[in-house]
Design goal:
- By secondary structure, the protein is mostly beta strands.
- The protein folds into three domains: about 120 residues, Immunoglobulins (Immunoglobulin-like); about 100 residues, Ferric Hydroxamate Uptake Protein, Chain A, domain 1; about 100 residues, no CATH class.
- It contains three helices and 19 strands.
- The protein has a five-stranded mixed β-sheet, with no helix packed on it. The chain has a five-stranded mixed β-sheet with strand order 10-15-16-13-14. Strands 1, 4, 7 and 8 form a four-stranded mixed β-sheet that branches.
- A hairpin with a 2-residue loop joins strand 13 and strand 14.
- The N terminus is likely disordered.
């Protein structure tokens, strides 16, 4: 029985640690105008996109700490007796990062409210990792090769594309093999929504999500947390989108053809061969039950038609009659 309880506790702890790779956290200190800490102040964090709230109280040191917060924009409210209510807006929670918001309350009635918009970029003080995060807008707007998410690694210092790539039969998801920080591509730890996303044999990404389904990408190149033990060159965490209280979606269609291609004067007298590359898809997300349950889905497909021209020769009449004297190299029977 004790062994069973111990095993359950270990599994629960492992699940909690694994979940840290999916969320962000919020921390800070609440003080009064004189700089003294304010204890038992109520801190309420509300997601702007989903309306979901979480609440905590400041401790004896005036500090607060909220974990398991989904990536996105939040509004933080501070309430304490004898002080004006303070609302901090536009607080962004990033993937696997602790955002710090320190506030100083103003003496007054709780019915009075102070609104603050915008915060300074978060300064990471709780860990020594070297990382770069790409937001939804950056993932969507940055140029990518064939809308392939793995190509964004090439924007990060220390990355180098491998000259040889896996065949499409081994790599149907089209992930690009990239060496990071002097390590082979197989030492890169891919994660998606907090779960392992590595091919155990080939060392490549298993699920290569479409650009429209990605909310944030975090690239960590050094000083990884202990939970990323299998990483060598880099850790790449991908957080996918979910629905919000607002119905939203996207549609796209990309076309590449031979309209502007130059022809080969020797093998293409009538024009370049046909080329039709179509990449299309879309996404949609919204609420099933406001502030409670959400849904999101996306689709992407590619259709390619690639023509080619060949320049070759046919045998002359003399060659058909067995006269190969026109060849510069002598043709002979090696057995005679």
């Amino acid at each position: 029985m004790r062994l069973l309880l111990f095993g359950s506790a270990v599994l629960a702890s492992a699940s909690l640690l694994q979940a840290q790779a999916t969320f962000g956290s919020l921390l800070g200190t609440v003080t009064d105008p004189a700089g003294a800490v304010v204890t038992n102040a109520k801190v309420t964090v509300t997601s702007v996109e989903r309306g979901v709230s979480a609440t905590t109280l400041t401790n004896d040191s005036g500090n607060y700490f909220l974990t398991q917060l989904s990536v996105g924009e939040y509004t933080v409210e501070f309430v304490a007796p004898g002080f004006q209510r303070l609302v901090q807006q536009e607080v962004r929670i990033a993937l696997g990062t602790s955002t710090r918001v320190d506030v100083r309350l103003t003496v007054g009635q709780v019915t009075e409210q102070v609104n603050v918009s915008g915060v300074a970029p978060p300064l990471v003080t709780d860990r020594a990792e070297v990382s770069t995060a790409l937001t939804t807008k950056e993932v969507r707007d940055l140029p990518t090769l064939n809308r392939n998410l793995t190509s964004l690694q090439l924007l990060i210092p220390g990355s180098q594309r491998v000259l040889g790539q896996h065949a499409s039969s081994e790599n149907p998801q089209g992930g690009i093999q990239i060496n990071n920080n002097g390590q082979t591509f197989g030492s890169t730890n891919f994660m998606i929504d907090g779960t392992d996303n590595n091919d155990p044999v080939l060392g490549i990404v298993i699920v290569n999500p479409s650009i429209d389904s990605v909310k944030e990408v975090k690239y960590t190149g050094g000083n990884f947390d202990a939970e990323f033990a299998q990483a060598g060159g880099a850790v790449i965490q991908v957080e996918t989108k979910s629905g919000t209280n607002q119905l939203h979606g996207s549609l796209f269609e990309f076309l590449q053809n031979n309209a502007m291609n130059a022809r080969n004067s020797f093998s293409e007298p009538t024009g370049p061969p046909p080329l039709r590359w179509n990449q299309f898809g879309g996404s949609v997300g919204g609420p099933i039950r406001r502030n409670k349950i959400f849904a999101f889905g996306d689709y992407q497909a590619s259709r390619r038609r690639t023509g080619a021209s060949v320049l070759t020769t046919v045998p002359t009449q003399a060659m058909r009659n067995g006269d190969f004297s026109a060849f510069t190299e002598r043709i002979y029977d090696p057995l005679t």
